[in-house]
Amino acid sequence: MTILSLLIILSGFIGSLLWLFRLQLKHISFNKRVLFGLFGGIIFGLVIRLLFEKVSNFSTSLSWISLVADAYVALLQMLVMPLVFISIVGAFTKLEVSKNLGKMARNVLAILLGTTAISAAVGYLSAIAFGLNGAVFSEGAAEKERIAALSEKQLQVKGVPITEQLLNLIPRNVFADFAGTRPTSTIAVVIFASFLGIAFLGIQRKYAKESQTFADLIQSLEKIILRVTTLVLRLTPFGIFALMARVMATSDFEALVNLGRFIIASYAAIIVMFVVHFVLLLWVKVSPSEFLSKAWSTLLFAFTSRTSAGTLTMNVETQIQKFSVNEAIANFSASFGLSIGQNGCAGIYPAMLATIVAPTVGVNIFSIEFIFSLIAIVTISSLGVAGVGGGATFASLIVLSSMNLPIAIVGLVISVEPLIDMARTALNVSDAMVAGIVTDRLIKKQA
């Protein structure tokens, strides 16, 4: 019976992937195929969970589903560093007038960091509004395992002052950072690419021939990497199907019920931050309905894939093609948005966790000192949060450790992490797009 159940699960899984492939051959739109993968994965995961959970080889079946899911995530991770590097250097080679560099950088960074500070405040208020301050969550086997793993990760950040954390953002060995050997490798590559771009602008007039050769090389590499990205993105419906099937097949539904308030509070905070984004867009005369209609496919991809980095290409294309954003600004805002100003992962999430756990150790969360410390630490620690899975956990560890708060809360919410992370990622990508659109409109208005 166990072999039969294994064959049934694998046959259903392979059959579902073949069905998605047939939809591609029939030229069904990419967005529709992603939605089919999303809801198909949810249904398939629920079915095998209900029918086969108690079968002895259930975990073996899931390992084959995980193979597809993890391979898809690995391919997205493969793209992060090349995309970040090429996008930022490419942004500098496309700057028509270098005097706009200061305005562009200042506006983009101000929006990214400013909205992160606001998102921290929103996360704090949401936790209080839903009565989560001081809440205690249940601890199961998965949670215990996660807490133990987090304790080891905490050693990397515990007792490290903010000044040293900022120093760690600077690349010492850029090749090691290209390999992603540090939690802050992404922002380190961003910094190195920015220096390279500034150097390019510095020699542009004096060495016109050499600088043009460099620009042509970067733009050629950009086209090749974007083509590789397109090939990976074609796998999205299959990857999303496998990811959602695994999530639904392995989720602790009892924990989902217990953590229901936390889920609702998180989504409420995320919705509020989307409203903040809309207000910023209205400032430059872009209506929320226009933004959502034009950015919907990009936000949907971010929601389903749970990776800001994987959405980078779509983010840039959406800004340029649908909002007429300058190409350099679009590349700059989208690339910096991968590691700076992630409103969901580096803003709302760590602020909520800190507010929940602080009262359990006798901290007065209503004191001005706590509120300002929380917002400041969250904003500063948001620098360098990678745009692929795990960024929210890393940001939370830094914030909780910096405020001398217990980190166990990060492990206790593991059961609902995927469900919340989808909306957080969409919010992160929205912020990067808003930063680009607003910056472009302001610079054009001042020109």
Would you write up a description of this structure?
- The protein has 447 residues and is mainly alpha-helical.
- It has one domain (2-446): Orthogonal Bundle (Proton glutamate symport protein), CATH 1.10.3860.
- 77% of the residues lie in helices and 0% in strands.
- It has 20 helices and no strands.
- The model has no long low-confidence stretch (mean pLDDT 83).
Break the fold down into its secondary structure elements and pairings.
Layout: H1 2-25, H2 30-52, H3 58-93, H4 100-129, H5 141-154, H6 162-167, H7 174-178, H8 185-203, H9 208-233, H10 236-250, H11 253-258, H12 260-283, H13 288-305, H14 312-323, H15 327-336, H16 343-357, H17 368-381, H18 391-402, H19 408-412, H20 417-446
InterPro entries: Na-dicarboxylate_symporter, Na:dicarbo_symporter_sf
Family: Belongs to the dicarboxylate/amino acid:cation symporter (DAACS) (TC 2.A.23) family.
GO molecular function, one term: L-cystine transmembrane transporter activity
Order of helices and strands: HHHHHHHHHHHHHHHHHHHH
Beta-strand percentage range: under 5%
Number of separate domains: 1
- Report, as a whole number of angstroms, the end-to-end distance: 73 Å
> Under CATH, the topology is which?
Proton glutamate symport protein
Q: Based on the structure, what is the oligomeric state of the protein chains? A: single chain
Which class of secondary structure composition applies to the elements?
A: mainly alpha
Shape: globular
Write down the CATH class.
Answer: Mainly Alpha
The CATH homologous superfamily is termed: Sodium:dicarboxylate symporter
How many H/I helices? 20
List unreliable stretches of 5+ residues: none
Radius of gyration: 22 Å
In helices, the fraction of residues equals over 70%
